[in-house]
Automatic annotation (TrEMBL):
Protein name per the record: Branched-chain amino acid ABC transporter permease
Ranges annotated as spanning the membrane: 26-47, 53-74, 86-107, 113-134, 141-158, 190-209, 230-257, 263-283, 295-315, 321-342
Membrane topology value: Multi-pass membrane protein
Subcellular location: Cell membrane
Lineage: Bacteria, Pseudomonadati, Pseudomonadota, Alphaproteobacteria, Hyphomicrobiales
């Protein structure tokens, strides 16, 4: 008779006691009910929301959230701050316009989408690797200044180079391919496309953060000397973190070019570079869901703040004043962003004995 594996027996007993399938990941089993509710709401959002909300609010929010998520991965798990994530995303957008099709036929190569997309992501990830190889050799303010200098150099290079990047004009008519007979730039298809990419990026970051590489990266963040003494290659872990984060930003950059139907140097301008940092900090740098919360807040303020200012008799061009004041208020009251405020509120309610706050924490 074949021997019985005690581990499998215990796994089966545990599954029988909990009523859950043993092949379901533990992190998926532990999701609170509120997360499933949010998932159902997002899935059926096109039923109740108009095209503007789907395309401009949620679509743009998912894209910015993915770029900020790449920064959150570097900062939250690696202890590194990069101001070049928007530049990486813009490079991927440029590559999809150059390698694919656009309104500038003299430059675009008209490659098929199944070849142009992975090559664009690869080039952007290689650019992120180069940035990481330079940035990880420094610490603190020097890392920030190096990445900021690279972002500024990329902006001015794209604006002044006409042979490859078409200079100040950039590329117009950069649209997604028509697959399965669907126009993916319409509001509902693009909403589901950006939502799917955001969910995949979130799940991948959660998985990687709990993988051996992610745990080692967090160890490097907390005590690099001890990790080096244990035999870990600190430099390689940090550089690969830039590569991984760059791939996420590259996917968002392609979506960004498709949503705007164009890519130009202004996409990677210094204001946009700083906006990504603001989004990540406002949402929270400790959990992957934070950047998406910060992106949604930012997009809503950017969309409706000018109207609010005009109603108050102020210039609509000062909408970033509200964004800046909100940023200062959140950072002052909670260094962990909006998620920190939420956790502080839950902690106070829990002390008061409120059973509604005993659910699972945000992932």
């Amino acid at each position: 008779m074949a021997a019985v594996d005690p581990t499998s027996v215990e796994r089966g007993r545990r599954a029988a006691r909990t009523g859950q399938a043993s092949d379901v990941p533990a992190w998926l089993q532990g999701l609170p009910v509120s997360w499933w509710v949010v998932g159902v709401i997002l899935l059926f959002m096109p039923v109740v929301a108009n095209d503007f909300i789907l395309f401009q609010i949620f679509g743009w929010g998912f894209i910015l959230g993915m770029i900020a998520l790449s920064l959150m991965f570097l900062g939250g798990y690696g202890g590194m701050v990069s101001l070049a994530q928007m530049s990486i995303a813009a490079l991927a957008g440029y590559m999809i316009a150059i390698l694919g099709s656009s309104g500038v036929q003299t430059i675009s190569l008209n490659w098929p989408w199944w070849l142009a997309i992975p090559v664009a992501i690869f080039i952007a990830a290689a650019f992120a690797t180069m940035i990481g190889a330079l940035a990880v050799r420094t610490e603190g303010i020097y890392t920030i200044m190096i990445t900021l200098a690279i972002a500024a150099a990329f902006f001015y290079f794209t604006r002044q180079n006409y042979t490859i990047f078409n200079g100040y004009t950039g590329f117009a008519n950069v649209v997604p391919p028509d697959l399965f007979g669907i126009n993916w730039r319409q509001s509902v298809p693009f909403y589901y496309l950006s939502l799917a990419c955001a969910v995949i990026a979130y799940c991948v970051v959660v998985y990687v953060s709990r993988s051996p590489f992610g745990l080692a990266l967090q160890g490097v963040r907390d005590n690099p000397r001890r990790m080096a003494a244990l035999g870990f290659n600190v430099f390689a872990h940090r550089v690969f973190a830039y590569t991984f984060a760059g791939a996420i930003a590259a996917v968002a950059g392609i979506l960004m070019a498709w949503q705007n139907a164009q890519i130009s140097p202004g996409t990677a301008g210094l204001p946009a570079v700083i906006d990504i940092l603001v989004i990540a900090v406002v949402g929270g740098m400790k959990r992957p869901i934070g950047p998406f919360i910060g992106a949604l807040i930012y997009v809503v303020l950017r969309t409706f703040a000018p109207d609010i200012l005009l109603t108050l008799g102020l210039s609509g061009d000062r909408f970033k004043l509200l964004i800046g004041l909100g940023f200062l208020a959140i950072v002052y009251w909670s260094p962990d962003g909006v998620l920190g405020l939420w956790e502080h509120w839950r902690a106070r309610r829990a002390k008061a004995g409120d059973p509604l706050t005993r659910g699972g924490d945000a992932q």
